[in-house]
Amino acid sequence: MENILIIGGGLMGSSVAWQLSDAGEKVVLIEQQGEHYTSGSSYGDARISRSLGPKKDVFSFVHNRTVEEVGKLIRFLNANSPKKKHKMEDVYTTSPVSYLYHKSQYEDVRKLRFKKQRRDYRSGSGDSAFRKFGMTLPDDYILVREYRKHSGTLNPRVLIQKLRLGIEKKGSQIKYNRKATHLTKKQGFYEVEILNTKTNKSKVIRAKKVIVAAGAYTVGVLAEIAPYFKKLITPKRVSLSYFKISEKRWQQLSKTEIQRILDALPMFYQDGKMYFSMIEKIEKSGSPVFKVGGHMMRRNIIDLDSIWEEKPRKKEVKWAKKQFRKHLEMLEIYIKKKDIEYVEGYNCVYAVSNTKIPFVTHIFDQDGVLDKDIIVVSGMSGVGAKGCLGYGVLAADLLLGKGETNATYRKAVRAFGNPLVRLYTKRKKANRLF
Ligand SMILES: Cc1cc2nc3c(=O)[nH]c(=O)nc-3n(C[C@H](O)[C@H](O)[C@H](O)COP(=O)(O)OP(=O)(O)OC[C@H]3O[C@@H](n4cnc5c(N)ncnc54)[C@H](O)[C@@H]3O)c2cc1C
Fold first, then answer.
1. pLDDT, the chain, mean
2. Nearest partner of 225 among 195, 176, 180, judged by Cα
3. pLDDT of residue 111
4. For a FRET experiment, which of 147, 171, 211, 292 has its CA 20 to 30 Å from that of 271?
5. In order of start, what are the domains of the chain with their CATH numbers?
6. Which of the pair, 128 or 115, is modelled with greater confidence?
């Protein structure tokens, strides 16, 4: 009998596994992919890392907590490896983060102005945006730029590698090529059928406690034990396009222009299709590869397993290129269409919750009774990465029956456990779910 089994080894499963292992628990983490992470919401080299928000914002809280916890992980790894080669900079690339708001969203911008963050961000529109950021904005837009330590991007690939190292150094186990195919509850324990995706052989194991962190596959994993999750979580596809400025044109840019591009990324529009762009990586030649997408250009998925192989639609790539050019034009940098080269593109998938707020929650069993031995960490949509270790802390505490007293922590527990609160208070609605 295993003590704690974690299903899914993306950013969330790895974060919870690390937090539990750090708390002295021995866990078994199973991941359906091989050691090399090739598909999942956490795939890639860059995610926007940002903490700007209104007072007591739970998303700022999980981001800040993640920065803190990555620091602890790095210290642990260095204390336990002779070369002490781990650094925060392996995970975080610090740079300003820009947010473009429409003037109709002025109330949202106003709420950002609270004491602690005021010194970490600046905002401007019209001429003031040009003076402050060298950006020519459309008349009805406001630019907000956050700049604090570890705002910018975080690298999920590197963070997962470090979490795995930490988990194993603490004596917990990670098993690759293991897919949970059935999860059921028996008398006081869980039974999980696990398929070895290499040998095609299945085995049943038992566990006292379970964490489900299967990303877009969460609904399938919970199909037998909590089928109502299909009404709470929906997998969505977001297409990503990668561009380069042609080598010749890149060389023609002045140092000031290059700096202006670097300062203007990552960018995240707060209205419309919610265009975002960031530097995915810098090539050996020194020129960057830009990742571009639209947060609200989410599409439904027919077949979750094959979606990774499908290429983005032509019109999605065209839209991304157009927005990227417009973005550069706001910096007074004019690049011809032919000089923006398409490097590659693919569909990335994430799980979106019905409330658009992630879940770190227990489940109700088939009789409508709260089952405290299982936690679901999912529905992270496009905001999970920056807060992964924060969600990890909340999930580990929830499973171990621990908690912290500070107000924002408690607010986060309530916010991410929200479906439960609603189910408790609206029994009628709950009954419809079963
Ligand atoms: C296009 C895109 C852009 C994003 N941009 C940002 C951003 O800028 N900033 C930000 O903070 N966040 C961003 N995110 C969100 C963030 O990347 C995700 O929220 C996060 O990676 C989710 O991690 P996860 O562990 O829940 O899911 P995953 O990484 O998908 O992990 C789930 C894992 O479970 C495994 N699994 C599934 N089923 C089983 C099974 N039955 N048995 C065993 N293993 C199983 C899968 O193989 C997978 O490895 C973005 C996401 C996408 C897709």
1. 92
2. 180
3. 86
4. 147
5. 2-47+156-232+355-433 (3.50.50.60), 234-353 (3.30.70)
6. 128
